[in-house]
Amino acid sequence: MTQLKNVTIIKKANIYFDGKVTSRTVLLQDGTKKTLGIMMPGEYEFSTELKEEMDIAAGKLEYKIAGGEWETIDGSGVFYVPANESFQLKVHTVVDYCCSYLAE
Amino acid sequence: MTQLKNVTIIKKANIYFDGKVTSRTVLLQDGTKKTLGIMMPGEYEFSTELKEEMDIAAGKLEYKIAGGEWETIDGSGVFYVPANESFQLKVHTVVDYCCSYLAE
């Protein structure tokens, strides 16, 4: 799915870590939400509220979900973070991602 | 207008200057196009094909359209770039912008 159709986009960007991580919020017709984001190289930690699907479209990173091992994605890949969990990222090259918030 | 409704967004990011300038392309129902973007601090030069409206929602920058003077926007502001023209930017803090491509 290369396009998201019939959606609402919130114009104002979400800006974290002095702009090294930014995203735009997309509201889908089914009531769910995605963010399309960019991460510059660096190390970051995030926490979830809902379960998240992190779909990496470009870039190289390592991720570690609390209690787990470091895993690498280079170029493209998907990982899931449970609700109410934290995860760490080491971003090595500019990452283009789509995060989907899942109700479970 | 804080939201763009009933639009199509292209998932893949537009990435320039090693990720220091990134944007997402939004296709509107009237056939026009906008990009929602982020610029990290730095100096950049761009060229237009269509006339562009650059609507700055956050950040501080200076801009100079070919043949013109340097002008400053701090926080919010709009400027226009004619079709087939170049413009320079000095971005001082993270800029959140919406660029509208105008048919004239």
Automatic annotation (TrEMBL), chains A, B:
SUPFAM superfamilies: RmlC-like cupins (SSF51182). Its EC number is 2.4.2.1, 2.4.2.2. GO terms for molecular function: guanosine phosphorylase activity; purine-nucleoside phosphorylase activity; thymidine phosphorylase activity; uridine phosphorylase activity. GO terms for cellular component: cytosol. InterPro entries: Ppnp (IPR009664), RmlC-like_jellyroll (IPR014710), RmlC_Cupin_sf (IPR011051). The keyword Transcription regulation does not apply. Keywords: Glycosyltransferase, Transferase. It holds the Pfam family Ppnp. It catalyses: cytidine + phosphate = cytosine + alpha-D-ribose 1-phosphate; guanosine + phosphate = alpha-D-ribose 1-phosphate + guanine; a purine D-ribonucleoside + phosphate = a purine nucleobase + alpha-D-ribose 1-phosphate; adenosine + phosphate = alpha-D-ribose 1-phosphate + adenine. It is an enzyme of class 2 (transferase). Coiled coil: none annotated. Catalyzes the phosphorolysis of diverse nucleosides, yielding D-ribose 1-phosphate and the respective free bases. Can use uridine, adenosine, guanosine, cytidine, thymidine, inosine and xanthosine as substrates. Also catalyzes the reverse reactions. This is Pyrimidine/purine nucleoside phosphorylase. It comes from Domibacillus iocasae.
